[in-house]
Write a structure and sequence with these properties.
The protein contains 15 helices and eight strands. It is α/β, with parallel strands linked by helices and about 325 residues long. The chain folds into two domains: about 170 residues, Rossmann fold; about 140 residues, N-(1-d-carboxylethyl)-l-norvaline Dehydrogenase, domain 2, CATH 1.10.1040.10. Strand 4, helix 4 and strand 5 form a beta-alpha-beta unit. The radius of gyration is 19 Å and the shape is globular.
Length: about 325
């Protein structure tokens, strides 16, 4: 198959490499000219240090060149530019091309999920969400990974499953696009929160509590928006949540650690070239919870620390001093 990957950060490069090693023809779009040069000339990418990519991958800064004639178009841009990247590609994407969305997030102003953004731009339904517990560097190194391809229609999900599936990259299919995308987006907020707790040196008990109650918040939001609650017990829910909240490679967790140790958001972001999606998603998740009328205390606490000047320690104290309640929603 001819595959176009839009976004050459760590995750985009890892997915392009996965596709190329499955013997597909792969072209990748990068915003940065130096990234294009390194992929084409040395088969490396500065976002994936010490990893050699498949030599057959062709990179370009020209979207038209990348997407023209593609059978599959994979969106892997950061969530805040996904719409703009899709709009740049749309005039040259075939009506028969399948749209795969590997970006994780909630659009800030519309509060749309990434497949909704893609379907709006490309004027079609049936986009496939690709999500799950994945660190790009481990995927690129060929370490065992399991992920989910979700679509409301069975056939597109199965086609994407076959496209990516390999000996060390196991792809499961799902029908619950809402749950899969919400899990992939909101877990980044929970990773920020657990990182803050780690930066405050609050211990493993606090981390376990934040992960577990974070899962409850994700599930509550999902149910309110029509997701299957069982999805949050799967790879795109608890699987991705645990990885991002505990893994040393997690950008969102690392950002939270810096904030917990006393840095402001601006100070913590200084010098970081890669995007920590949890910052944007904190705003979006809070707005979405207010729209549907549910409580998300961890999201609210993260918002207060990031954007309202509350200290990390006061936010944790506020969470612990909430009124007692049942563990499960009645």
């Amino acid at each position: 198959m001819r595959c176009a990957v839009l976004g050459a950060g760590a995750w985009g490069a890892a997915l392009a490499d996965r596709l190329a090693r499955n013997a597909h023809e792969v072209r990748i779009w990068a915003y940065e000219p130096d990234v294009v040069d390194s992929i084409n000339n040395t088969h490396t990418n500065r976002f994936l240090a010490d990893i050699t990519l498949a030599s057959s991958i062709v990179a370009s800064t020209h979207v038209k060149q990348v997407v023209s004639g593609a059978d599959f178009v994979v969106l892997v841009a950061p969530s805040h530019v996904t719409r703009a990247v899709a709009e740049a590609a749309q005039p040259n994407v075939s009506r028969d091309a399948m749209i795969v969305v590997a970006s994780k997030g909630i659009e800030q102003h519309s509060l749309a999920r990434m497949t909704q953004v893609a379907e709006d731009v490309f004027g079609r339904t049936g986009a496939v969400a690709l999500s799950g517990p994945t660190f790009a560097a481990e995927v690129a190194r060929g370490q065992p990974t399991a992920i989910v391809a979700a679509c409301i229609e069975r056939e597109p999900a199965e086609m994407v499953q076959q496209l990516f599936h390999g000996p060390a990259f196991r792809v499961y299919t799902q029908h619950d696009v809402i749950g899969v995308e919400l899990g992939g987006a909101v877990k980044n907020v929970m990773a920020l929160a657990t990182g803050i707790a780690e930066g405050l040196d609050l211990g493993f008990n606090a981390r376990a509590a934040l992960i577990t109650r974070g899962l409850a918040e994700m599930t509550r939001l999902g149910i309110a928006l029509g997701a299957d609650p069982a999805t949050f017990a799967g790879l795109a829910g608890v699987g991705d949540l645990v990885l991002t909240c505990t893994g040393q490679l997690s950008r969102n967790r690392a950002l939270g650690v810096d904030i917990g140790r006393g840095k402001t958001l601006d100070e913590a972001l200084t010098g970081r070239e890669t995007v920590a999606e949890g910052v944007i998603t904190t705003r979006s998740a809070k707005a979405l919870s207010e729209r549907v009328g549910i409580t998300m205390p961890i999201v609210d606490a993260a918002f207060a620390v990031l954007f309202e000047g509350q200290t990390a320690r006061d936010a944790i104290i506020g969470l612990m001093n909430r009124d007692p309640r049942p563990e499960r929603d009645e």
